[in-house]
TrEMBL record:
Domain of life: Bacteria
Signal peptide: 1-20
Protein name as annotated: Carboxypeptidase regulatory-like domain-containing protein
Key word Signal present: yes
Keyword Protein biosynthesis in record: no
Database matches in Gene3D superfamilies: Carboxypeptidase-like, regulatory domain
């Protein structure tokens, strides 16, 4: 073989070796095991106003040891290298109700996993100060009516908010209940509230049962969530300072 042919052969051989090395490098590039998990949190007072400063909310990945971050003033947060799969998150700040997300799926999309905006409300400042039975009818129908007051005294501009909890158990509470109402707006004191018999039957109670009713101050952004570990709804923003439950027999 001539010297020229030897040089051409050697050049071609080196090119093949280089190509093989590149192919090997491409094939052996490790696949990332995790990605970015991000989102935004908007803080509220316990009424109907959003806050301008959304900093200081701690976001923790419950199932990963030592993985957490904190929101900036805009409420933005970002967690890097979160393993692909399902995760549980806790969002909390002193003075605000803790909120939890279960089974958050992280994916390998180019922008990572971006969660929907979370609304986080302040703990309720409304305190229930009195609660008594006031009749066996409500809104002109058979049922039950109650009379209650709250503090501070609400006004049309600065309303209070409450939530009812009902059960056949005398120890009815925010964690031991059969039925809970939506949030109720309170415009003044000495408020009459209640339920018709039809409301109570629809809620699962039966005629002749003794029903116990308890009332708590609540935040408009109540951060409620269902905990799949216990199968019940959690109400993190309630003001747990309240009065004794009242009872009545369902007609």
């Amino acid at each position: 073989m001539s010297t020229r042919h030897q040089l051409l052969y050697l050049t071609a051989l080196l090119g093949l070796v280089s190509l093989a090395a590149c192919s090997t490098n491409l094939t052996n590039t490790p696949t990332p095991a995790g990605g970015v998990l991000s989102g935004t949190i908007q803080l509220w007072d316990d009424k109907t106003s959003t806050l301008a400063d959304n900093s200081g909310v701690i976001i923790t990945v419950d199932d990963l040891t030592g993985v957490s971050t904190i929101t900036d003033a805009a409420g933005k947060y970002s967690l890097a290298n979160i393993t692909y799969g399902l995760h549980d998150l806790t969002m909390s700040k002193a003075g605000y109700g803790t909120f939890r997300l279960f089974g958050v799926s992280t994916t390998s999309s180019i922008n990572g996993t971006i969660l929907p905006a979370t609304q986080l409300g302040k703990l309720a400042t409304t305190t229930v100060t009195s609660l008594t039975l006031s009749g066996s009818a409500y809104n002109g129908s058979s049922g039950v009516s109650v009379l209650y007051s709250v503090a501070p005294i609400p006004t049309a501009i600065n309303r209070g908010y409450v939530r009812y909890f009902l059960s056949t158990d005398p120890a009815v509470s925010s964690t031991n209940y059969t039925f809970t109402s939506p949030i109720v707006s309170v415009l003044n004191n000495n408020v009459t509230g209640g339920f018709t018999k039809e409301d109570l039957l629809t809620a699962g109670f039966k005629s002749g049962q003794t029903v116990y009713l308890r009332l708590y101050g609540e935040s408009v952004q109540s951060n409620t969530y269902v905990d799949p570990n216990v199968g019940t709804r959690v109400f993190p923003n309630l003001n747990l300072t309240t009065v004794e439950a009242v009872s009545f027999v369902l007609p």
